[in-house]
Specification:
262 residues; 3-stranded antiparallel sheet; alpha+beta
Length: 262
């Protein structure tokens, strides 16, 4: 299929924009209503848009009628409390899909690797329209936390680690990258996440804020990375064994039920 993409993301699949002066903005995210919605890690979300303006976070394709991650409807109960965040989401002038603030509690590097995932924003996206990417605007000050990006989930050589001080602004093709956040803070991390449609408007916005596709990746001890990879492999093996055991138990119960009926 042929989609309209943003040229600024062609090189590496992500850009880091100029930092936003977060200290100049009110802490609107503290006044929002959050719902329990689990992503990667211990999370809650405060929806600013949703499929029909309700206080929920489900994918737009899980509604009736199902549709792609575009044309989000503002959740007025939250959007009214966050005019600055809404203005930041609207600034590029491109189509907005899901838009929400995430609250993430602290985790570990191995847990973040275990939680690496790819988004599915372009499910049902019509051919010939703009490809959906994600903006991540860090609101709280978390300089020792990192947005982790990997093109190959199990290959540390493909990993990029972007530090997350207050005001850090990143745009990522989250269907290209496996991604998660390693949050080391003692307080929750807050971040504005918006689904944006690629195209000329988004390219102009990225150019305005000097989008850098080669932002320096934070260094990490290779031995620590390998130790964490081993931890993840162990967890995944345990999960696979548990799922297999559950499947065997279900089949056995089904066979036993069939025999008793005979």
């Amino acid at each position: 299929m042929s989609y309209i993409t943003s040229k600024a993301l062609d090189e590496t699949g992500y850009v880091v924009l100029d930092d936003h002066d977060q200290a100049a903005d009110p802490q609107e995210w503290l006044d929002l209503e959050y719902v329990d919605w689990k992503s990667s890690g211990d999370t809650r979300f405060a929806p600013l848009t949703s499929a029909f303006g309700e206080m929920e976070c489900d994918g737009f394709w899980n509604h009736t009628p199902p549709r792609t991650d575009k044309d989000g409807v503002w959740v007025e109960a939250n959007a009214a409390k966050a005019p600055v965040l809404r203005a930041r989401a609207e600034e590029p002038g491109t189509n907005i899909g899901r838009c929400r603030v995430i609250e993430l509690k602290a985790d570990t590097y191995p847990t973040a690797l275990y939680n690496l995932h790819q988004d599915d924003n372009n499910r049902l996206n019509p051919d010939g329209t703009g490809w959906i990417v994600r903006a991540f605007f860090n609101l709280s000050d978390d300089p020792d936390s990192y947005l982790i990006l990997r093109e190959d989930r199990f290959d540390p050589e493909t990993e990029v680690r972007i530090s997350l001080p207050a005001g850090r602004q990143v745009i990522v093709d989250t269907q290209r990258f496996w991604h998660a956040v390693w949050h080391q803070g003692s307080s929750p991390r807050y971040c504005l996440i918006a689904s944006w449609e690629s195209g000329p408007a988004l390219d102009a916005y990225i150019e305005k804020y000097h989008g850098d596709p080669r932002f320096p990746s934070a260094p990490l001890d290779p031995a620590f990375v390998e130790e964490s990879q081993a931890d993840v492999r162990h967890r995944l093996a345990e999960r696979a064994a548990t799922v297999a055991a559950q499947g065997r138990a279900a089949r056995a119960a089904s066979q036993e039920s069939a025999q008793s009926e005979n």
